[in-house]
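dude i think i finally got it to work??
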Amino acid sequence: MYLKLLKNHIAASLFKNAYFLMSSSVLSSVIGYLYWISAARLFPPEEIGFIAAVLAAASLIMSVGDLGLGITAIRHLQSSGSNKLAMANSVITIPAVCSVLLGLVFLVLIPYLAPQYLPLVINPLYGGLFLLLAVGQSVVYSSGSIFTALLASDRTLYLVNISAVGKLVLIAPIALMFPGSHGLIIASALAIWIGISYSFIVSFPSIIPEFKFRFTASANLLVPLVKYSFSNYFARICLEAQNLLFPIISLHLMGPEKNAIFYMALITSMVLRVIPSAIFNSLFAESSNDKKSSKKNLRDALKLNFLIIIPACLAIIICSEYLLVLIGENYAKEGRNALMILVVANIPWSINYMLITLARVNQQNKLVITICVALLLSSIIPCFFFMPTWGPSGGAMAYLLGQILTMTFMFFVYGFRHYYKVKPYNE
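look at this
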């Protein structure tokens, strides 16, 4: 009887897709965790804290430089006909060039606005590696968007996991050859470009037989389409900036060593994001295709989310000291409280992500932006008050406060019934 129920449960497309998305993300999360364990063993905390902020800055530049073309590709590339190759190359080229330009502006402004990043300017190798890293992240994101658009998400998994494994394999030998934080940048940049090379040589030709990468900027193809993606682009920047700005602000407020402790707690806790992301992304897909079952799918998704994320949170809280000891004794001693608070923050984060998903289903772009901006501001602003006083735990408290305030505000202003009324398919 129970076996039959289990089979029926897994057979439901909502759950089947959610479990697939979760399982496909677990490998890269585990590899990423092992990479940071290795990095923490090979480099002192102050180097880890600095590189965490550098990686966050490069990712933020990539997000801004995308210009909404990733979302544009997902929406329109499949139907672009004979323009498919030109559009694919443009979706890769334009964000990459923008990332270079934004990276150069960032490097020029460092002495005036962000002196904590001065090593990137003083050492030309640092600056060059930073630009290579930012461009690589841009190409990875653009490639993933193209694969998604062409219904080849498995190629994204190959790209991400090849890069993740590359970092894990390269970290030790590169640490011996290049001691210091630039060794971490070299490992990250080199691994990303190994994954990109595989995609250009193997993955792209398998789905676009005539594919050959060329620097292309077909603005006439993309400009008319981008305006429809701008709101989602802006919302994505706000949602990602919430996580990316924390290491940058933490480096400024607490210094590199404390930032390393906070960052390790943050990335450990973010493994749990796989659960709500997979479930509610699956809900989004189901709600777009099965309009009549939207309310049932929402209830099922909420139940599954809480059934998995609450025990997972408890498990990580119980094992928090052991997880951080693997990274280092100092990380466990000073970062355990921060990790436990950040783990708890994943529960209201899952609700906020659900609200964002439902707003997207409803095609309520202004509401999506409202939630993402609220999450960003309500988390970042308290950092400036909490971090100087309570250190890494203060940063975690600011993060948790932002999730709770946003969730409470959205329910108070709109109410849950508002999200049940899905505009495209009112019953």
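Confidence is low (pLDDT under 50) at residues 422-427.
im so relieved honestly
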